Amino acid sequence: MTEAARAAAADPAGTRLQDAVPLDVNGMPHGQPVLDSLVALLDLERIEENIFRGVSPASSPVRVFGGQVAGQALVAAGRTVPPERRVHSLHAYFIRPGDPSIPIVYEVDRTRDGRSFTTRRVVAVQRGKAIFSLSASFQIEEEGIDHAEPMPAVPDPETLPTFGEQIGPLVEKLGRAQPRPIDVRYVTEPPWVSRERGPREARSQVWMRADGVLPDDDLLHVCIAAFASDMTLLDAVLARHGVYWGLDKVSGASLDHAMWFHRRFRADEWLLYDCASPSASGARGLATGRFFARDGSLVATVVQEGLLRVSD
User: Fold this and answer.
1) CA-to-CA distance for 68 and 294, rounded, in angstroms?
2) Domain map of the chain by residue range?
3) How confident is the model at residue 70 (pLDDT cuts 50, 70, 90)?
4) What are the tens digits of pLDDT across the range 180-197?
5) Fold for domain 153-312?
6) Predicted TM-score (pTM) above 0.85
7) What is the per-residue burial (b if ≥16 Cβ within 10 Å, else e) of 1-28?
């Protein structure tokens, strides 16, 4: 953990965040100090051998962000696994809304320790009730067959406007007026813009990276990617129907989330997040995502189903 992250951990309410923090064009904090706060957020307190405690940032909305609880749960699982075993998949369910005003307790079940694979199950608890569950599998390094789909042809991230520049004056209305540890740049037209012309292809492409430098910790980079994977995934579903959070009568929440990690990557280097939605029905939307590294290698795959209710 960096010194700035240690300071952030000692200040979970974020009272020092305003000091010497870069601001974007809309006055929102970003950059290394904000990223260090996220790193501190993922640095859970160990209460017992298999029990950990995490907190939420002071700037949290009404409920805990799904990517946060997924990232923290994966940290809890990883803290009970030898470092030479890398996580290759996770499968999670969002059970109840999390309350950001109180800590979250993560209980880890050491399900299996095999010769090649390690399995962990984590339950996140608040007020004695489960709010989230995660199963994760870890594997030793092994050689084997190798292939992957190619990365789509897209513009370089440096040629695209920043999130702050794209969202502009809508930042307050869309509920995005909070510190941003992830640098997100839309390749496809942002859904809050495309909705003005009605439904379009169920596709969303963004470049994203941690907005600063991360320590050389494989598990941390994977947990940051898990955090970021919940940020724009359902955009593909909403784009297909020409609606967006805060601008239309649409409400929703993540229901389940699965990730497969194929190859090593750094979350503080640009990753293309290519998302699509093959189906929506029964007030649920399904979205798939693929993370590509800058060199074109496919590093992770994501699938999520979300609750989406649209009223007239």
Assistant:
1) 25
2) 153-312
3) very high
4) 899 999 999 998 888 888
5) Thiol Ester Dehydrase; Chain A (3.10.129)
6) yes
7) bbebbeebbeebebeebeeebeebebeb
